[in-house]
Amino acid sequence: MKNYKFSVLLLLFALVGTINAQFMQAGLSERLYNRLQQTGSNDHIRIMIVMKDRVDIASLDRQLYQLNASAEYRAKTVITALMNKAASTQGPILEYLAEGTAAGNVKSYKPFWITNFIWAEVKPDMVYSIAGRNDVAEMDIDAELDYDRPVAFEPAGQKDASSESGLKVINAHKMWAIGITGAGRLVMNDDTGVDGNHPALNYKWRGTTSSPWYHAWIDPSGGTNFPSDCDDHGTHTMGIMTGRAGTDTIGVAPAAEWIAAKTICAGNGTSNHMISWQWAMNPDSNVNTITDMPDGIGNSWHDPTGVPTGGDCTSTIYLDALASMEAAGIAIVFSCGNSGPTASSITRPKNINVSLINSFSVGNINGNSGFPYPINSTSSRGPGYCGNTGKLRFKPEVSAPGTSVRSSVRNGLYANLTGTSMACPHVVGAVTLLRQAFPNATGKQCLEALYWTAQDLGTPGEDNSYGMGVIDVWAAYQYMKSNTCRQQNIIILDNATNYDTVNVMYGGTITDVNFTMGALTHSKTGDIEFSIKSPAGTEVILSSRRGATGDNYINTMFNDSASTLISAGTAPFTGSYKPESPLSAFNGQNPFGNWIFRVNDNAASDTGRVMNYCMNIYYNAITGVNNNSLPFSYILEQNYPNPFNPSTSIRYSVPEAGQVTLKVFDVSGRQVAVLVNEMKQQGVYSVDFNASELASGVYFYRIEAGEFSAVKKMMLIK
Length: 718
Description:
With about 725 residues, this protein is α+β, with helices and mostly antiparallel strands. It is about 25% helix and about 30% strand. The chain has a seven-stranded parallel beta sheet, with helices on both faces.
């Protein structure tokens, strides 16, 4: 009898496991299935129903980059595609939910188009019924979210005039000095709301300046029509983005206007954030306008409702919504959380990476101390735990000042708060400055620039505390203006032509072009030809079928001024070479538009890949009056080649006469070389650095000229 009972129990356990697996296969998330087991048959559960037929947003995004689409065309195309897909596919399930409402099984429902899904509040049996539909891909709970609560709060006063230390750390003041303050741009936070009467913010609310309130404010749960804050959190983060009262500047982009969503209060579900994100893509409900769309959205919240297997690591709701907003041109920025210093403590959904900048999370450094700025112990750490590899495991992406940051709070007051929530809006503000400088750039391109130009801190290279390092908006501006680098990992298809497109966002007259092949590996480089083509259609072949088996291109610079022709070079190709045809063919053209990088594999049965490359385009900017060859701003460029062995060149620009120093330091901060220490006239300069007597490793070079200073990193490999 005992054996019989035991066998029955085993059978029941097996049956339950089979049923569980079946519902997992039917698209129910694990946490939804668990919630169903805890919900009475006559109770209701809030769910999100994702449809199978959805816009291939990744392909659409690629097409728009290839077209060099304007910001207006990009937004209209993406939003229209999403709306049309929802309208054409949701009819049958909406009819089914309407029938369920009449039968008493559905309490309410709401269709969405940001990705093709429907929110509904239904009885458990209805969930199981929907799971059996062939037009449904998956379902998840409408999870209750929470904001990343600050770890410290200290009242602070207003100042007559200031530039907060954190703003100087990210070099926002250098952008202001050339007139880039966020004027004409728009920021947004998805937070606890904003005190619409605060003197640092009230005159900058879009509902005050030019639009009806419902184009500038959304409160999904409360239904209010004027900005308010259920906590100090949202008012503080908005102040960091754009706050200024008189001469007291607390915001990164002090001339920008703002809109906001009040979502992290009562009734704080994932659906509220979907409502606010969808609204943000088109606040005025007119797809032909984009002035109502924010440049970036700050998100300082997380999803605490998970399961041991990772929960929302593969949630289509988050993944598709983030991709949709990114494709429309918006920069989505997250605080990484305040659960540090434990490894993999970064919170959901910013624990995942679809690409280097999606999702983009920010760690908290202390900008009130001197360099190197320490990471706050509470800042959440990577790696992400959702199955990615390589650089996609590192978290956060970057860091920004988040320790004892002074900004606005409710009732017209100010306070110092600490947390990654204070770091996140520094990045949103930086994106806004870059969008003013490059109006046709996407939020994605701005985040990539901030990522690649971040000032390295902590362990050399990207790490799971600082990410790439602390953001430097001035360096990002120079990067977007002067350099075009790609980290693409392009697979060279066998016996085929392979392309990569680079969108250049500045205009003027080209004076010089250099090209650096960071790494091209192939089993037989003698089969390989690669070239670049300008927007005007001019193509320059850089190298054609040089080398032999396994002779790769590593930190190979193509420059018309090089002394050695690539045809006379010795493989593997490292160092500087004249290309097959002169790069001067581009001189006089406008750099703006799509540049095509082409790699042709001319034989079968061999493979390879391009890991990274850079085009350095030098040009005279269009000023509206005339062009001249003299620089109008300080620039410290990335050395080339990089990595190098044993020599490399460093190029810098000086807009006015003055004392210039350029020094090299090792990772301990010890000075190892002085490359420049003299008066320089206005102009563009290049200096060589020979490291033959130094050991392999990471080194830093620092320029100082007047009030300007900048630091970049280089790698010596012997």
